[in-house]
Amino acid sequence: MNPIKYLKIIFFLFLCSIFLSSCGGKFPGADARKYDPDPKKRVAKNLSEGRGFRLSDSFGKSSNGVFEFASSNELWRASLDTIDFMPLASVNYSGGIIITDWYSTDQASNESIKISIRFLTNEIRSDALNIKVFNKKCLAQFNCIISEKTGNLITELKEKILKTAALYKTEKKKKNSKAYKGNQKY
Asked: Domain 74-176 belongs to what architecture?
């Protein structure tokens, strides 16, 4: 055989050994003491946590629907609870937007409003929401003027949503907290 070919093989094996030894066999979260030795239980746990993989999902032949629930996001829940009196036109959790339909307080009124709430972050803070309120005034059935409304309503909505979200977060912490039972002497 050609000596250059031998050198290439030796160099390749040398590189492979460096890459394999640099891993050290330690992967993040690979502590065997933390995982059940029964593979069926590990698979069930991974699937329940959403870390599973199904071959049918990758080919688009999944018979189950994919649902996203925002019950753990306090800001999202507070926003929906604040505007629950209004009909919703579009709600997309993964897109981070809520859009209401046109709403009027009485049938005889020729004015109605529409609210759009965009989520910029999941953190409960004043710049987490982008709220827009649109006003529609109709002089006749097909003669309507739509404009973006400014003023106190946007500020009031934002404050109400943030306060409600803060309450939800406090309730969640109380619900999930457990009393410390350390070295207590009776």
From this structure: 2-Layer Sandwich (3.30)
- Helices 74-82 and 152-176 pack at an angle, to 10 degrees, of 130
Q: Is 68 left (phi over 0), alpha (psi -120 to 50) or beta?
A: beta
The string of DSSP letters for 29-56 reads: T--GGGS-S-HHHHHHHHHHTT----HH
Query: Please, which pLDDT band fits residue 67 given cuts at 50, 70 and 90?
Result: very low
100/116 Cα distance (integer angstroms): 7
- For 78-124, the pLDDT digits (tens) are 999 999 999 999 998 888 899 999 998 887 778 899 999 999 988 89
Q: If you average pLDDT over every residue of the chain, what do you get?
A: 78
Distance CA 130, CA 127 (A): 7
> Can you read off the two tokens belonging to residue 156?
């009031």
* Composition of the chain by helix, strand, coil, percent to 5: 40, 20, 40
Cβ(114)–Cβ(99) under 8 Å?
yes
- Confidence band (pLDDT; 50, 70, 90) for 180? low
Q: Report domain extents, the chain.
A: 74-176
